[in-house]
Recover the amino acids of this structure.
């Protein structure tokens, strides 16, 4: 595939050295994993859809002043991103009870929460990314107080913006996971959004039917995983219906 230097290989993405200092290339694989990689599959076309959906969301977030690592999409599976030092936290924002929150607290899936709740997990595969408190984060020095203030405020702004964006296309944003990084800009260090935002990292339910349009289709063996991701892309206007009735990914729209 390439003679570029690989920097890191994760479960769903690979990072390569970028063309200029301070840049990386993020490659989206078709691999799907769940339950800390106990369950694995290859889902044809998932990487292409996530590349495009993440590009769309990061571009919209930039436009409303949310700093993030996205620079431009390079091709079907790759995007050029700013190199950051990843803060070792998974930041989860929840609007509706589901997944581990429902299990942990006995709240039925689908119950709207009194307000958006931000949770933190320590990013450590060997430990299964355990839930941690701000006390742990401060005591172990995973992020500074300033970084935590920035992360919470950015996460809530992202939630407001994305809830509206998805609601406009008939999708309920149940919850999602974000990652942030330290971007070194000369003397300054800025906390910016990194990683990806896609149906791999969000719970997205159809407003009318509550049909799941996200990775829970894979986790819970519901089938039609890439079809659901394509439906999200179609509703966001990334995919156009072709004259033959099939989906066509429009790779020209939004190109810089
Ligand atoms: P839960 O804690 O209920 O399993 O997940 C909450 C939200 O964060 C869901 O939208 C889920 O997709 C996302 N999430 C949690 N952990 C991970 C992870 O390790 N990788 C990805 N891609 N998403 C995650």
């Amino acid at each position: 595939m390439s003679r570029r230097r690989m920097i890191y290989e994760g479960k769903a993405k690979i990072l390569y050295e970028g063309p200029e200092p301070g840049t990386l290339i993020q490659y989206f694989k078709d691999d799907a994993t769940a339950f800390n990689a106990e369950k694995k599959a290859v889902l044809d076309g998932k990487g292409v859809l996530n590349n495009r959906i993440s590009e769309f969301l990061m571009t919209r977030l930039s436009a409303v002043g949310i700093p993030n690592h996205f620079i431009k999409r390079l091709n079907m599976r790759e995007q050029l991103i700013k190199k950051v030092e990843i803060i070792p936290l998974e930041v989860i924002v929840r609007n509706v009870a589901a997944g581990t929150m429902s299990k942990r607290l006995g709240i039925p899936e689908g119950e709207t929460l009194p307000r958006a709740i931000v949770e933190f997990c320590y990013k450590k595969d060997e430990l299964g990314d355990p839930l941690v408190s701000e006390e742990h984060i401060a005591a172990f020095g995973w992020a500074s107080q300033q970084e935590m203030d920035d992360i919470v405020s950015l996460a809530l702004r992202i939630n407001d913006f994305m809830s509206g964006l998805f609601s406009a296309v008939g999708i309920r944003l149940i919850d999602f996971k974000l990652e942030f990084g330290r971007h070194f800009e000369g003397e300054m260090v800025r906390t910016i959004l990194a990683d990806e935002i896609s149906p791999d990292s969000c719970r997205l339910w159809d407003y009318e039917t509550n049909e799941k349009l996200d990775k829970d289709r894979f986790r819970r063996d519901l089938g039609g995983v890439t079809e659901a991701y394509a439906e999200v892309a179609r509703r966001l206007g990334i995919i156009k219906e072709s004259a033959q009735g099939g989906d066509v990914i429009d790779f020209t729209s939004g190109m810089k």
Notes: Residues 145-167 form the longest helix (23 residues). The radius of gyration is 18 Å. The longest strand covers residues 171-185. The mean pLDDT is 94.
